[in-house]
Amino acid sequence: MRDNFERQLAELNEDLIAMGALCKAAVSESMTALLHSDRQARQRTFLLEYEIDQKERDIENRCMKLLLRQQPVARDLRTISAALKMISDMERIGDQASDIADIMKFLEGSDITQHVHIQQMAEAAMKMLTDSIESFVKKDLPLANSVMQADDLVDELFDQVKTELIQMISENPGQGEQCIDILMIAKYFERIGDHVVNIAEWVEYSVTGSHRHGEA
User: Fold this and answer.
1) Angle between the N-to-C axes of helices 74-103 and 39-69, in degrees from 0 to 180, rounded to the nearest 10
2) 176: closest CA among 106, 121, 118?
3) In this structure, how many other beta carbons lie within 10 angstroms of the beta carbon of residue 75?
4) How many CB atoms lie within 10 A of CB 211?
5) pLDDT at 216
6) What distance in Å separates the CA atoms of residue 89 and residue 94, rounded to the nearest whole number?
7) Greatest extent of the chain over all pairs of C-alpha atoms, in Å
8) Is the predicted pLDDT of residue 213 greater than 70, yes or no?
9) Which of 86, 179, 182, 187 shows its CA 20 to 30 Å from the CA of 109?
10) Residue-wise burial string across 105-139, b where 16 or more C-beta atoms lie within 10 A, e elsewhere
11) Which residues contact 21 (CB under 8 A, 6 or more apart)?
12) DSSP-assigned letters across all residues of 194-207
């Protein structure tokens, strides 16, 4: 019975890694769409979001079966609980990557992205996502902690992009709508960073049983 349970936990772990890889791919494709006005990258982002949604449902079903058919001990229960929380954040990351790609249809031919720090912000959020998944795979608490700290950089870059866009609007009001679209994209990257922090916190919880988000 325990051997079967361990096998199912291992499969859950593999599913989470696969979902994380899909999220990385979706964010990467949305970045390509943003920086290169790549229509094919936009379409790939939408397809990846669909795969992420499917994977979330698959993992949710697996977790429910583990909880209902097995009798998990405290450590196993933490793993399953963390998995359910993580897939919710991963699904939202997929949504936001799709939102970024969707906005790109209004920005074709625009060079605004070349004049603000949106690429640096996107790259910082992408690194956080990559590191959070690696921290889960390796159960690496220091790396998970570094992900939480890295969110400060994403927030700082968001403020910088916002300031740059306000300046651009003041100098050229005709670019106002496109600047607002870029600001929305920056906000989505900022939210991706927030969801990645949540993932890192759930990695920490699955290993230690402590969840800092709920601490005073």
Assistant:
1) 160
2) 106
3) 10
4) 16
5) 31
6) 9
7) 69
8) no
9) 187
10) eebeeeebbeebbbeebbbbbbebbbbbbbbbeee
11) 133
12) HHHHHHHHHHHHHH
Q: Which amino acid is at 215?
A: E
Q: Which ranges of 70-175 would DSSP assign to H, the alpha helix? A: 74-103, 118-138, 141-171
* pTM confidence score: 0.92
- How distant, in Å, are the alpha carbons of 27, 83, 113, 117, 181 from that of 172? 30, 47, 15, 18, 15
Give the tokens for residue 110: 């625009």
Instruction: Give CA separation, 88 vs 43, 133, 168, 172, in Å.
Output: 23, 14, 36, 40
Q: Determine the Cα–Cα distance for residues 8 and 181; give it in Å rounded to an integer.
A: 44
Asked if the model's pLDDT at residue 29 lies above 90, the reply is: yes
Buried b or exposed e, range 173-186, using 16+ CB within 10 angstroms: eebeebbebbbebb
CA distance 44 to 98: 9
Q: What is the pLDDT confidence band of residue 68, given thresholds at 50, 70 and 90?
A: confident
CB neighbour list of residue 12: distance below 8 Å, 6 or more residues apart: 59, 62, 63, 66, 79, 80, 83
pLDDT (0 to 100) of residue 74: 80
Instruction: Provide the pLDDT for residue 52.
Output: 97
